[in-house]
Amino acid sequence: MNSEEIRQSFLQFFKEKGHFIVPSYSLVPENDPTSLFISAGMQPMIPYLLGESHPEGKRITDAQKCIRTIDIEEIGDNRHLTFFEMLGNWSLGDYYRKEQLSWFFEFLINKLKLDPNRLYATVFRGNKKIGINKDIESVEILKALFKRFGIKAKDIDFAEKNGMQGGRIFYYDESKNWWSRAGAPDKMPLGEPGGPDSEIFYDLGAELKIHEKSEFKDKPCHLNCDCGRFIEIGNSVFMEYIKTEKGFNLLSQKNVDFGGGLERLVLAVQNQLSPFETDLFKNIIIKIEELAKKKYIEFIVPIRIIADHLRATVFIVGDDRGIKPSNVDQGYIVRRLIRRAFRYGRQIGIENKFWMEQVADIVINDYEKNYPELRKNRNFIIEQINKEEEKFSQTLENGLKEFEKLKSINGKQAFNLYSTYGFPIEMTKELAQEKGIEIDEKEFETEIKKHKELSKTASIGKFKGGLADSGEKTVKLHTAAHLLLAVLRKVLGEYVEQKGSNITSERLRFDFSYSEKLTDKQINQVEKLVNEAIKKDLSINCNEMFLDEAKKQGAMGVFESKYGEKVKVYSIGEGSEIFSKEICGGPHAKSTGELGRFKIIKQESSSAGVRRIKAILE
Asked: Is residue 66 part of a domain?
């Protein structure tokens, strides 16, 4: 099976099990300041996991675009990717463990024809401190499933200390087998949902001796040892808990949240050792080989990095949110990806000007059937990549001039070339060798490690607070954001469109299309009109309808590509008093009178042609 057949097979399989197929959400999350990008299929589903009704029912399936940035330095191995597609299915208070685990086994073995002898499973070990027991129920279900295929599944605890011990099902703690957006239970903020999970792993084979060749060879091999022999291909989360001040309480409904990386499933089906050897990357890598006049087998890591980074860049820039390279937030990630791809291209001998645009076109051609926004935004994608190449070319030239001044290179100087001018250590080593000088690589690695820790800490610090939730304050601010958009269109003009929002329990942040700074008079007028709508205590009603009908009624929709056939339309006001009508997942206040006083605390530029307002409710 090729990747397209696998993607469609998954969606069709769950459609036949009563699930409604919804399209992918934007890569940039709305109302969720926990991350720069959607990095898991469940992020856009949070309101429904918390109890909000989904317009398409209790069973949902999709293929969701995802970006994971924390592993950029790991790209080049056999499993990490910056962009990936997460195949997902959800039960929103409907079926639970037995159906989910059975169906996934059925899909893997009957549809994808994977060898059951190469499948292994993990479950939650339990945690007495938070009052959640060992997941014995999942173990019993898994044992019965393995037994169907003649496999006696032994369950093992503490494989991380003692190795596999002939086991098939393994217990791990909350660092491995608990899922929430924030991670383990102790990292979860109040109001965050989560739960234990069961992961299925695919064995690439003991005969490949991957563990013996890895940095983990002196430690016991087990499913989560990171040597690369075992690849996680699916994670079933049993999301039934919410964190409260008193500990973990049960949600109003028991949910299933499943995610399986398409690239890893394709790897297993096509019997390859990495996603880069599958048909998902074939055309991209052929183009890079052609440009470099080098073979993939000779330059595996740099070619993997180029392929990964440019594929991710095309999806981020080509998203309907229109992210450009910059020095902040999502734009910084785009800049970093383009520059890393460009310098690795130089490293393997690609000298053509604007060569990255040729690789980008391959990505667009390969993916436009499932993600038509890439073709629609093709000119914007190419323009941004080429602009960034021109800027970075000059930076590289400046770096070379700086390098020529050095008589010797210690670790800090090598790191400066890396961090300021974008020189990979390999490039610095090659240049140093030509000059007959040595580099203190050990000191360089120390500096790199310090830099990574600082970056990671800064990222965690930036996004740790104000997780999107269904708390009262967050819900009120969400409703206030709808009032704000309606008022901005009245004050500034009907061409104003929402470009993004980020809502916590403390404040709302709202991005909208407008090229000029708002005057004090305009700010005051916006505040006044929003507060007048609040004083009128307008009712807020939700109706479910087909997308075409919502459009006919004049409902505003932010990014229509994400909506399924049916949508929720929230109206503020009734009859001739309709103040706002928007397509939205919810939740909202019952009436505007609940909100309090609306106050704008800041306005600023977000990007070219986009303004940002920050506001609170007093």
From this structure: yes
